[in-house]
From TrEMBL:
This is FAD:protein FMN transferase. Belongs to the ApbE family. It catalyses: L-threonyl-[protein] + FAD = FMN-L-threonyl-[protein] + AMP + H(+). Its cofactor is Mg(2+). Keywords: FAD, Flavoprotein, Lipoprotein, Magnesium, Metal-binding, Transferase.
Length: 346
């Protein structure tokens, strides 16, 4: 479910950030970059390393780790943990990797923390709508109601590393959290390979660590929440933090003049209509940002901000339909609104 978060000035500005990075090398560090198509999206890793060879080696190991996680949790990859869990729903339990188990447990935690707004067992509804797939359509109310009967996370059973879905019509989808976990793991790999500064960007789930050689923080832009826009609403300065956005302008289809986006509200079975158009979560880990950006979008700015203010190490920027920008208390000094058609909340 995600996410177009851009460095400084929208998707185009990722290039600006990279250009600045390559032109700002210290005497002891060189800027190294590489890209790969992973997790169904464009992945970018940029680091400062003692040498180009060491940087490329560290990046390669990080991408290898990301691919390993994709192979474990990709729902459509035959033989993955998630594929096997879904294929055996209502039949038997499936032995899963420690990574998959950890992500599932985090998903269950966030389902409770968000009063069900975030739900890793929403797969039947996601498949029913098929947004972004060749069968995308507006389902009938009866089909939506039927699918809603099969999203109860209580039917997810854990026994050690064995996972079972007791409801034969339930489907698990870790797409709203696995990408964030992969970002966090990639950063761990880079650090373990001697990299002290850089960023990982997987389809807009970003983690920036360390400082640039000039000791400045990383500048990340929040995309203007409009379809096909590369503009930026605000910039955020980061150091050793994650930033993840969700918006209704990302994946969608139009039917009879109505746009249906991909963020499905478990309570209604329809795309969320909370009055929110964009949520950006700034947190200490990308897995938290991944889950919370979706949940806050569905909860709406009031309930969503109440939740964020209760959580340690988490901040949010929420944009509503009327172009109002709500900034959590801990992020006021980190966020600068650049587009004056968007106004901060009173």
């Amino acid at each position: 479910m995600k996410k177009y978060l851009t460095a400084l000035l929208g998707l185009f500005s990722i290039s600006i950030l990279i250009t600045n990075m390559l032109g700002c090398q210290s005497q002891s560090l060189v800027a190294v970059e590489n890209d790969a198509f992973v997790l169904g999206t464009f992945g970018q890793i940029r680091v400062y390393a003692p040498s180009e060879e060491e940087g490329l080696k560290a990046i390669a190991v990080a991408f290898k780790r990301i691919t390993e996680l994709e192979n474990a949790m990709g729902p459509s990859l035959v033989g993955s943990d998630v594929y096997n869990i879904n294929a055996n729903a209502g039949k038997t339990s499936v032995q899963v990797s420690d990574d998959t188990l950890k992500v599932i447990k985090e998903g269950i935690k966030y389902e409770g923390l968000t009063s069900g707004a975030f739900n890793i067992t929403l797969g039947s509804l996601i498949e029913l709508w098929g947004i972004g797939k060749e069968w995308q359509k507006v389902p009938s109310p009866a089909d939506i109601q039927d699918s809603k009967e099969h999203i109860e996370i209580i039917n997810l059973q854990i026994d050690g590393n064995k996972i079972m879905i007791k409801d034969p019509e339930m489907l698990m989808d870790l797409g709203g959290i696995a990408k964030g976990y992969s970002v966090d793991e990639a950063v761990k790999v880079l650090k373990a390979n001697g990299i002290k500064s850089g960023f990982v960007n997987l389809g807009g789930d970003v983690y920036a660590f360390g400082q640039k050689p000039d000791e400045s923080k990383w500048a990340i832009g929040i995309q203007k929440p409009l379809v096909n826009s590369n503009g930026v609403v605000a910039k955020v300065l980061l150091e050793n933090q994650s930033i993840v956005s969700s918006g209704n302008y990302e994946r969608y289809f139009v039917d009879k003049g109505i746009r249906y986006h991909h963020i499905i509200d478990p309570a209604t079975g329809y795309p969320s209509d909370s009055g929110v158009v964009s949520v950006t979560i700034i947190s200490d880990s990308a897995i938290d940002g991944d889950a919370l950006s979706t949940a806050v979008f569905i909860l709406g700015h009031e309930k969503g901000m109440e939740l964020v203010e209760e959580l340690e190490g988490v901040d949010a920027v929420v944009i509503t339909k009327d172009n109002t920008v709500y900034i959590s208390s801990g992020a006021n000094d980190m966020v600068e609104i650049l587009d004056k058609t968007y106004q901060p909340a009173d």
